[in-house]
Amino acid sequence: MAIRKAVIPAAGLGTRFLPATKSTPKEMLPVVDKPAIQYVVEEAVAAGLDDILMITGRGKRTLADHFDSVPELEAALEAKGDAARLEAVRASTDLANMHFVRQGKPRGLGHAVLCAKQHVGDEVFAVLLGDDLMDPRDPLLAPMLDLQQRVGGSVVALMEVPPEQTSMYGCAVIEDGPENDQPRITGMVEKPDPADAPSNLAIIGRYVLHPRVFEVLERTEPGRGGEIQLTDALATLAGMPAEEGGGVHGVVFRGRRYDTGDRLDYLKAQMRIAVDRPDLGPDLVAWLKEYVATL
């Protein structure tokens, strides 16, 4: 069965961006001229996923509004003959079949994924975290979907990180050598101390999950931070037989990734994406060269 559904958890408070996120969801902060969340939805659609469920929370109504039509705005732009902006406004509305459900009390990423159970049913599905922006020139989700269709089970995205940064991520225990870019994963450790990390392969915010994950999440006890950790459920799946929906593989990503949940990386994402835009890049690069020369 073709994989068509994606789940995007977006219920976080965005405290690292306060006071900007006091009344604006962090997912709606702009990266150049589009909210960060739209890049994530576009990535899912580009990989063939056209049924998107967003897990939201209190104060996140503008996420649904952004992907809805705005007839009065469209009419005003059409009357002005502003075809370019009209097309940009309609693009977010026509991207995919969008659905929204509230998480209620935030209880971790595992709980957010569990909120998608009724919508997903017994289908394999993708999970995309809204803080991670993958450069569209470096496909990640499509190879993950292809791998899942070939081997079954679940697939997670991995990225090599410096050993001293392993405590910021969940890290994979792999069966294969580091030269294998699609290793079988035998276990996972959530945010280990560098001395205890099983590898420097960090789990980043893209997953393709077998629906058996819901059953596992329902019996997963709260872990680190008192939250239901998706990493714990994946570690359980890694030890289950393939015929029961178990098994976990990884795809090592070596492309461009932007962490828009981090203030410095968010600013870097703004610059990198703007520099590559034909309408902004030439003038921005010229200004940057002049500015850097004055430092």
Task: Give the SSE layout.
Elements lengths: L4 E5 L20 E2 L2 E2 H11 L4 E6 L4 H6 L4 H10 L2 H11 L3 E6 L6 H6 L2 H4 L4 E4 L3 E3 L6 H11 L2 E7 L9 E5 L9 E7 L10 E9 L2 H7 L11 H9 L9 E5 L4 E3 L3 H13 L5 H13 L2
Parallel strand pairs: 1-4, 1-6, 4-5, 8-12
Antiparallel strand pairs: 2-3, 6-11, 7-13, 8-11, 9-10, 9-11, 10-12
Helix pairs in contact: 3-4, 8-9
Give a structural overview.
- The chain is an alpha/beta fold and 295 residues long.
- The chain has one domain (5-261): Spore Coat Polysaccharide Biosynthesis Protein SpsA, Chain A.
- Helices cover 34% and strands 22% of the residues.
- It is built from eleven helices and 13 strands.
- The chain has helices spanning 36-46, 61-66, 71-80, 83-93, 109-114, 117-120, 141-151, 212-218, 230-238, 263-275, 281-293; strands spanning 5-9, 30-31, 34-35, 51-56, 97-102, 125-128, 132-134, 154-160, 170-174, 184-190, 201-209, 248-252, 257-259.
- The strands form three sheets. It has a five-stranded mixed beta barrel.
- Strand 2 (30-31) and strand 3 (34-35) form a beta hairpin.
- Helix 3 (71-80) packs antiparallel against helix 4 and helix 8 (212-218) packs across helix 9.
- It starts with a strand and ends with a helix.
- It catalyses: alpha-D-glucose 1-phosphate + UTP + H(+) = UDP-alpha-D-glucose + diphosphate.
- It is an enzyme of class 2 (transferase).
- GO terms for molecular function: UTP:glucose-1-phosphate uridylyltransferase activity.
- InterPro entries: GalU_uridylyltTrfase_bac/arc (IPR005771), NTP_transferase_dom (IPR005835), Nucleotide-diphossugar_trans (IPR029044).
- This is UTP--glucose-1-phosphate uridylyltransferase.
